[in-house]
Specification:
Layout: E1 12-17, E2 21-24, H1 30-49, H2 68-92, H3 95-100, H4 102-119, H5 121-124, H6 148-157, E3 159-160, H7 172-186, H8 192-200, H9 203-207, H10 234-243, E4 257-258, H11 267-278
Antiparallel strand pairs: 1-2, 3-4
Helix pairs in contact: 4-11, 6-11, 7-8, 7-10
This protein binds heme C (2 copies).
Length: 284
């Protein structure tokens, strides 16, 4: 090693180990000294430019006046600048036109993702996968319609389907027959006596003669295997028929209220959410 040749000339410090290991006063290598002074210089430069030392009630600020908060706000302002043209177009356009514009609809979906997670997922589940008592938004089965305008209406004004309870004007045997008919409908069949009751009691007026439901009413499609109120047993179906849905006269009624977001979210946010929900899989 290059330093070895100096070892005989360099003074030793007087420390000796094992009789022949002496500690010498050699200079460290040149590259090491250079980096040492450079790092000292960097400390001084850093101290002058940036916040460095905590003081009693504040800190040394540095002449650049840099703070993490300012850097963050700068980044945010830049992001806003990128978003602004999209946001102004969304504010002016009807929601169907936004859906039709590839760039804008992509932007809406990205932008609404977090909003959906915060405001909608607690009821509708992540990605609209649904929760017990709350409808799935990611399939093509709609209570109030899956066209973009209908989804937009659902979010803006809220929805509240309503069905009277039939316990008061029907016998238990009738309720049972109605439930049998409804369960048969979901299997593609029918119960002849139950079907007559279905028409005579006025069920068909809301659910349609075929039981497929009417979007105007938000009445459920009874002919598919998708159920709003679980568990799906005959007793549960009888419960719905007996006590109704959102039926203020009966404390055992099923509750199903989609809140209105017109006061809570901006116009543009609601449009972006409508586009987001539409593309979850079931938009028409
Ligand atoms: C407090 C729970 C709750 C929250 C929060 C909520 N919803 Fe709903 N939503 C419901 C319920 C319940 C229904 C069904 C109403 C009914 O059955 O009449 C519904 C229905 C809907 C429908 C109509 C579905 C259909 O089949 O026609 C859409 C669309 C919808 N919600 C979107 C949203 C979006 C987007 C958000 C977030 C901004 C949201 N919801 C937040 C409870 C909620
Ligand atoms: C005034 C309109 C109206 C009438 C009349 C009506 N329904 Fe309903 N029904 C609804 C609505 C609205 C819903 C709830 C849909 C929702 O919000 O999920 C519903 C829900 C149901 C459900 C629950 C479906 C599910 O997926 O869990 C059943 C079962 C049902 N109705 C059967 C009947 C039967 C049987 C009758 C007649 C005895 C009847 N309905 C009469 C409007 C009506």
């Amino acid at each position: 090693m290059s330093d070895q040749k100096n070892s005989t000339h360099a003074k030793d410090t007087g420390h000796t180990w094992d009789d022949n290991l002496r500690e010498l006063t050699n200079q460290p290598p040149r590259w090491w000294m250079i980096s040492f002074y450079l790092s000292l210089a960097w400390v001084v430069v850093y101290f002058v430019l940036f916040p460095a030392l905590p003081l009693a009630n504040s800190y040394t600020k540095g002449i650049l006046d840099w703070t993490q908060m300012k850097e963050f706000q700068g980044d945010l302002a830049e992001l806003e600048k990128i978003r602004a043209p999209f946001e102004t177009r969304i504010a002016k356009m009807p929601v169907s036109a936004i859906l039709g514009d590839k760039e804008l609809s992509n932007y809406s979906v990205q932008s609404a993702k977090v909003l959906f997670g915060d405001r909608c997922a607690p009821c509708h589940g992540n990605g609209g996968a649904g929760n017990p008592g709350f409808p799935v938004l990611a399939d093509d089965d709609w209570l109030f319609g899956g066209k973009i305008e209908q989804i937009h209406q659902s979010i803006m004004n809220g929805r509240r389907g309503s069905m009277p309870g039939f316990a008061t004007n029907s016998t238990p045997a009738e309720i049972d027959l109605l439930a049998q008919h409804v369960l048969a409908l979901s299997e593609g069949g029918s119960n002849p006596v139950g079907r007559n009751l279905f028409v005579n009691k006025g069920c068909a007026g809301c659910h349609g003669m075929d039981g497929k439901g009417l979007e105007m009413m938000g009445s459920a499609n009874l002919t598919d295997k998708i159920w709003r109120f679980s568990p799906v047993t005959k007793d549960s179906v009888k419960h719905t028929i007996s006590h109704g849905v959102n039926n203020a006269m009966d404390k055992n009624t099923r509750n199903a209220v989609m809140p209105s977001f017109a006061q809570q979210l901006s116009d543009a946010e609601i449009k972006k959410l409508a586009v987001y929900v539409h593309q979850l899989g079931g938009g028409k």
